[in-house]
Design a protein that fits this description.
The complex is a heterodimer of chains A (about 200) and B (about 575). With about 200 residues, chain A is an all-alpha fold. Chain A has helices at about 15-40, 55-75, 80-105, 115-150, 155-185, 185-195. The radius of gyration of chain A is 20 Å and the shape is elongated. The chains are: A mainly alpha (about 200), B mainly alpha (about 575). Chain B: Keywords: Cell membrane, Copper, Electron transport, Heme, Iron, Membrane, Metal-binding, Respiratory chain, Translocase, Transmembrane, Transmembrane helix, Transport.
């Protein structure tokens, strides 16, 4: 019964948005853990095939990392919008790179339906890409707000901080997927996930 | 995404009733849509019963249609009616009013949530009109049969079902973000977590569960769509279908079952926990007695929520599993009975020596306790591996889950609607029609589902279209089935009384006044009834007590509203020497 935990007339909009984002990140985390769990179970079957790693993926990872860094620096500097632009730009570069990686893999003869490992590759990267796209949408809204609020001199740092946090999260998810798809041997993964 | 301008008060018809961002309007939109689609599912169930009760008498119900009716009835009732109505309907209406907020914290997202839900419903209804009709794979949509030719609706039907589910999950996530954030961030001054009505606790924990469980359904829906549309083999093993070997190979149908039930079991409690909360509040208010063991009730809700994530494989005993696995899941399943029983005892102890008013909401609340206990007890048989094996594919299971998660939550919903209707409209629903509706629904539900337990123990298999040439099924079973069908038709028809009452009372009901039930919780203390935009007029209320101060000794009224500053009541530090 501690009154200090309760709120005054208007809830703090930034605090609400921060909590909302954390809840959303929890939901997305569960989503990808479920996908990875399914991957671990399926990778134990006899028809599993190891996938060659498209060389482009490392560059894409770098692009996503740079996007994260750029947005973080935007969040820490409330007035310059240039890092914000770079954040979105690297985000787009990542998506384009992923599409090219799909093409690389397809030209090597690994289509969506060919074998379970490549099915999972397209599924997982596609799901992650959809979340990057959602992040770019939020980034676009933020940029609109930058244009509108520049005239009123309002602070865009809270929005930039949310964007940056989402991007760090997307980077973490991507690193996890990268590891699952190419670095961790399926047998190890099955031990971790308790698959058979 | 951020908190929008506070003064987005609507001005035109369109912004007020259609593109509304007001949680109260969105709640009504959710409720009406859910009731409409639930009506479709009700008709489907009666069509099913016509075939089972009077096999072959109705030529238009062939085997394919029968399976489509079964599937759509189940999926609509569980997801599009119960989940949507509890969270989108009750959650939306009650959370801001009960915690003392002006609206949800993300009103635009809230509006989007409703329109996504409507889209999901329309896509699902669209599957009735595609070639081949809706899917008839059973509501669990098990692969491989769900997407293979030979199963009705394996063309467009199953695709639309999966797409609709994916859209619904997005809608539910948008709503869920709002409910959780609003409860945690937008409570008014003095409204601590331990002063929340149990309705809010039930909806809050159910929402958290929905946010964590629905991703598993999303994953299975997306992967099944890949299998169906892109030819992958996530769930599909090598199959010879109609004499032809298909391109699928190596997939795991059991993997789908795990994913599905990892969602599916928490789903049971996603509809049960809000019902628990609503029933607690109804019983306390209409018995004029504080809820027995409030803290215990809260913890029971939380513990049930956690446990429900580690019991899912009890739906899969008949799929075969390591005996130790079965042992684990049987144990966790039976442990859930402990917090659940605590809740039942606390309801009974709240009623004990209460000043019980048998109003329509109270009748439904007591009806809920009755059906929930019956349905819960049969769960003990099905939770044990050895007794589940012979019963799993029989009508015993149909009886069990309809009592515990069909009839019980819908009784709580009816009770809640009769109770909060004056809040929404400023008018009371007709009492006589309400009692007629209750007695027919309550007695009728027992008439429908109680005999099914016997049919199940007799070994009568569920899911069958017809029972020709099953020597072990005696003719009396068929008579019982005809009886059940007649009861189902009567109960189904009498829901029209409810709809009539719901519609007519909005305009012709008796004016209710601001607080017709003498309720202590915050939603009844608004300056206007029904509450205007922003709910609280110029200043937010201040809360000084829990919502259950009924029949407090030493006060002139028989309840103290949460806003009362009286020094008496449950949180007062009493003179311990007084008896």
């Amino acid at each position: 019964m501690n009154d200090a935990t309760t709120r005054t007339d208007r809830p703090d909009p930034d605090a609400a948005a921060r909590l909302g984002l954390w809840v959303l990140l929890a939901v997305i985390t569960v989503l990808f853990l479920q996908f990875i769990q399914a991957y671990a179970v399926r990778s134990g079957s006899a028809d599993w095939l190891r996938l060659p790693e498209p060389a482009l993926l490392r560059w894409n990872t770098l692009a996503l990392l740079l996007a994260s860094v750029a947005l973080q620096s935007a969040a820490m500097r409330p007035h310059g919008t240039i890092p914000l632009w770079f954040g979105g730009l690297f985000g787009c570069a990542f998506l384009v790179g992923q599409l090219l990686a799909w093409q690389q893999l397809r030209s090597l003869g690994f289509g969506v339906a060919g074998n379970p490992a490549s099915s999972f590759f397209y599924l997982l990267t596609g799901m992650h890409g959809a979340h990057v796209l959602g992040g770019l949408l939020a980034w676009g809204l933020l940029m609109v707000r930058v244009r509108v609020r520049a005239r009123h001199g309002a602070d865009i740092a809270p929005g930039a901080r949310l964007c940056a946090r989402y991007w760090h999260f997307l980077l973490l998810v991507w690193l996890l997927l990268y590891g699952v798809l190419f670095l961790i041997p399926p047998a190890t993964l099955q031990v971790i996930c308790g698959g058979s | 995404m951020a908190y929008p301008e506070q003064d987005h008060a609507p001005h035109s018809f369109w912004t007020r009733y259609v593109w509304s961002q007001d949680h109260k309007v969105i709640a009504v939109q959710y409720t009406i849509t859910a009731i409409a689609v639930g009506l479709v599912a009700l008709v489907l169930s009666n069509l099913m019963r016509l075939q089972i009760g009077f096999p072959g008498r109705f030529a238009f119900i062939d085997a394919n249609h029968y399976y489509q009716f079964v599937t759509m009835h189940g999926m609509i009732m569980v997801i599009y009616l119960l989940t949507a109505l509890f969270l989108g309907g009750f959650g939306n209406y009650l959370i801001p009013l009960m915690v003392g907020a002006r609206d949800m914290v993300f009103p635009f997202l809230n509006m989007l949530s409703y329109w996504m839900y409507l889209l999901a419903v329309l896509v699902l209804m669209g599957s009735f009109f595609v070639p081949g009709g809706p899917t008839g794979a059973g509501w669990t949509l098990y692969p491989p049969q769900a997407i293979l030719p030979g199963t009705p609706g394996s063309g467009g039907g199953i695709v639309l079902m999966l797409v609709s589910l994916a859209i619904f999950i997005v809608a539910a996530t948008m709503g869920g973000l709002n409910y959780v954030t609003t409860v945690l961030q937008a409570r008014t001054r003095g409204m601590t977590l331990m002063r929340l009505p149990l309705t809010v606790w039930g909806i809050l924990v159910a929402t958290i569960m929905a946010l964590l469980a629905f991703p598993a359904l999303f994953v299975s829906a997306v992967m099944m769509l890949f299998d169906r549309l892109l030819g992958t083999s996530f769930f599909m093993p090598a199959v010879v279908s109609m004499g032809q070997a298909l391109a699928y190979k190596g997939g795991s149908p059991i993997l789908f079952q795990h994913l599905f039930w990892f969602f599916g079991h928490p789903e049971v409690y996603i509809v049960a926990l809000p019902a628990f909360g609503i029933v607690s509040d109804l019983i306390s208010t209409h018995a004029r007695k504080n809820i027995f063991g409030y803290r215990m009730m809260v913890w029971a809700i939380v513990i049930i929520g956690v446990l429900s994530f580690v019991v899912w494989a009890h739906h899969m005993y008949v799929s075969g599993m390591n005996p130790w696995f079965g042992f684990f899941f049987a144990t966790t399943t039976l442990i859930i009975a402990v917090p659940t029983a605590i809740k039942v005892y606390n309801w009974l102890l709240t009623l004990w020596r209460g000043d019980i008013h048998l109003t329509v909401p109270m009748l439904f609340a007591i009806g809920f306790v009755s059906t929930f206990v019956i349905g819960g007890l049969t769960g003990l048989f099905l939770g044990n591996v050895s007794t589940d094996m012979p019963l799993s594919n029989t009508y015993f299971v149909v009886a069990h889950f309809h009592m515990v998660m069909g009839v019980s939550p819908i009784l709580a919903i009816f009770g809640g609607i009769y109770h909060w209707y004056p809040k929404v409209t400023g008018r009371l629903m007709n009492d006589t029609l309400g009692k007629l509706h209750f007695w027919v629904t309550f007695v009728g539900s027992y008439a429908i589902y109680f005999p099914m337990h016997y049919l199940g123990i007799l070994g009568m298999p569920r899911r069958y279209y017809a029972y020709d040439n099953y020597a072990f099924i005696p003719p009396s079973a068929q008579q019982l089935n005809a009886f059940i069908t007649v009861a189902a038709l009567i109960v189904g028809t009498f829901q029209l009384v409810f709809l009539y009452n719901l519609a007519r009372s909005a305009f012709n009901g008796l004016p209710s006044g601001p607080n017709p039930w003498g309720s202590a919780s915050l939603e009844w203390q608004t300056p206007e009834n029904p509450p205007g935009h922003g709910n609280w007029g110029s200043a937010l209320p201040e809360v000084h007590r829990w919502p259950y101060d009924y029949s407090v000794p030493g006060t002139s009224t028989d309840f103290l509203p949460q806003t009362s500053t009286s020094p008496l009541g449950c949180e007062a530090k009493p003179d311990r020497t007084a008896p």
